[in-house]
TrEMBL record:
A GO MF term: cytokine activity
Region (Disordered): 252-271
Example of a GO biological process term: neuron differentiation
Function: Ligand for members of the frizzled family of seven transmembrane receptors.
Name of the protein in its database record: Protein Wnt
Short name of any one Pfam family annotated for the protein: wnt
Annotated transmembrane regions: none
Composition-biased stretches (Basic residues): 256-265
N-terminal signal peptide: 1-29
Localization, UniProt: Secreted, Extracellular space, Extracellular matrix
Length: 356
């Protein structure tokens, strides 16, 4: 029987999470190959046809009602990744060729770290939302806080707090291998344990960004008593949180490299809330099809900006082309009695700059 290394199994798991936005990938002992084209996970596809390990297949068959949440979580994560990096040289582009995220999926860079974190967070968010909406029978609201509160201040815990514990549990079970996610100051990390560490940072990001909402109760709209509950933040706030972790990620030693410097071996353990990576990122300036790097040629840039979307930074010093774009829209709309809206047709000419 064919065996798979833990790192390859972990890549296949992440590949499954991406079937809702990319074609389904099947896994071999060396790589992920293009399989059946699918718009998403459906009941017709079934657990038996998914590239799962025996443990994941058992989990899938026990909880097939969570497959739509896997699909929603993947869409949520990829969309947010592309939103957070839309002005960067690496814009979280996906590929129709395996692997889904190109070289970034296995490069051990900061981008790899963000991908695993945002995918794990997306799965937690989607499963937890499904629980709170009453779409599953196994989970619902988090009732642990109910009944507590402050009688002096006139409020108590109630309502429907989001049950992130269930979503976090499922994300760990589904994405992580059985391998314990630990490292020693001498041993360093493997690619697999690095990915698991970053996945856990993504899950904890859901809890770190939760907020407390309250509703007032009382006569004539007064706030004599408040009922409060905990709820997840919108996922774009989670994306901002993880982007900050990406910017402040920590480089760690790779245990697979035998020639490791002693000063790297004695580093203290990394904070569990920080993303980690092995290798420095490429500049992403030029296209590299072998690595799945799209490059920045043809990307739209901002000539007046000083940030990452500036033509100087985004175009990597190659310069840019300027195009005049004609924009037509409705304007000066007025309501005419009775009963329609009359508008003028306005045209404008704008400059658009794209990288050479």
């Amino acid at each position: 029987m064919e065996t798979r290394s833990p790192g390859v199994r972990h890549m296949c798991t992440l590949s499954l999470l991406l079937v809702s936005v990319c074609p389904l990938r099947l896994c071999s002992s060396s790589w992920m190959w293009l399989g059946v084209t699918s718009a998403g996970i459906s009941e017709k596809l079934g657990c038996a046809n998914l590239p799962l390990s025996p443990r994941q297949l058992f989990l899938c068959r026990r909880k097939p009602f969570l497959l739509p949440s896997i699909q929603d979580g993947a869409r949520l994560a990829v969309s947010e990744c592309q939103s957070q990096f839309r002005h960067e040289r690496w814009n979280c582009s996906t590929s129709q060729q395996p692997p889904v995220f190109g070289h970034e999926l296995t490069s051990g860079t900061k981008e790899t770290a963000f991908i695993y974190a945002v995918m794990a967070a997306g799965l937690v968010h989607a499963v937890t939302r499904s629980c709170s909406q009453g779409n599953t029978t196994e989970c619902g609201c988090d009732a642990r806080l109910q009944g507590g509160g402050s009688a002096v201040d006139g409020w108590h815990w109630g309502g429907c707090s989001d049950h992130i514990q269930y979503g976090t549990w499922f994300s760990r079970k589904f994405m992580d291998n059985n391998m314990k996610n630990t490292s020693t100051t001498r041993g360093g990390y493997t690619l697999n344990s690095m990915n698991q560490h970053n996945s856990e940072v993504g899950r904890q990001a859901i809890e770190q960004t939760m907020s407390t909402d309250c509703r007032c109760h009382g006569v004539s709209g007064s706030c004599a008593v408040k009922t409060c509950w905990r709820m997840m933040a919108p996922f774009d706030r989670v994306g901002v949180y993880l982007k900050d972790r990406y910017e402040n990620s920590v480089q760690v030693s790779d245990r697979s490299r035998r020639k490791t410097r002693r000063k790297d071996q004695r580093r203290p353990p990394v904070d569990k809330q920080r993303l980690i990576f092995f290798n420095k990122s490429p500049n992403y300036c030029l296209e590299d099809r072998r690595r799945g790097v799209a490059g920045t040629r043809g990307r739209r840039c901002n000539r007046t900006s000083t940030g990452s979307d500036s033509c100087n930074l985004l175009c990597c010093g190659r310069g840019y082309n300027t195009h005049v774009v004609r924009h037509v829209q409705r304007c000066e709309c007025k309501f005419v009695w009775c009963c329609y809206v009359r508008c003028r047709r306005c045209e404008s000419m704008n400059d658009m700059h794209t990288c050479k």
